[in-house]
Amino acid sequence: MSESRLPAHLEVSGLIRLVSAQGGFAAVLAKGEPDAGTIIVVTSCNGKDYRAYERMPQADGSRGWSAVRQGGDDDDRTFSAYLARRRDQDSDLWIVELDIADGERFIGLPPPIG
After folding, report:
1. For residues 78-102, b (16+ Cβ closer than 10 Å) or e, as one string?
2. What are 34-88's pLDDT values in tens digits?
3. What is the Cα gyration radius of the chain?
């Protein structure tokens, strides 16, 4: 059975509105295919402690958000290079940054420990 999917541009727009309504900042870093593009969500708080999340296949056949990269103050270039590589690999990819405390809650995940 096929899982119905919200078009990528609507999901990204919704994330941006939700974060803005909660007093955070959100921005599209890379715009992808409007309907079926993959989305990477980058979370941070006050421009620090970057984490990238992407939907990945799960054991039960569904697709859930998984942390794919983490960055700190001293490895910003490495983190940015990862995002650039992913964008080069997939021109349909959306990259959206959510700068707000516990940004993971906007994609249905608990905040990271530590």
Report:
1. ebeebbeebbeeeeebbbbbbbbee
2. 998 999 999 999 988 899 999 987 888 888 999 999 886 567 788 999 999 999 9
3. 14
Q: Tokens 């959306």 belong to which residue?
A: 94
Picking from 14, 34, 19, the residue whose alpha carbon sits closest to that of residue 104 is 19
Between strands 39-45 and 94-99, the pairing is: parallel
pTM over 0.70: yes
- Burial of 1-33, coded b for 16+ CB within 10 Å and e otherwise, reads eeeeeeebbebbeebbeebeeeebebeeebebe
Q: Which residue type does 60 have? A: D
Q: What span, in angstroms and rounded, lies between the C-alpha atoms of 34 and 49?
A: 28
Other CB atoms closer than 10 Å to residue 45's CB: what's the count?
16
- CA gap 108, 45 in Å, rounded: 17
Run of H or E residues at 80: helix 76-89
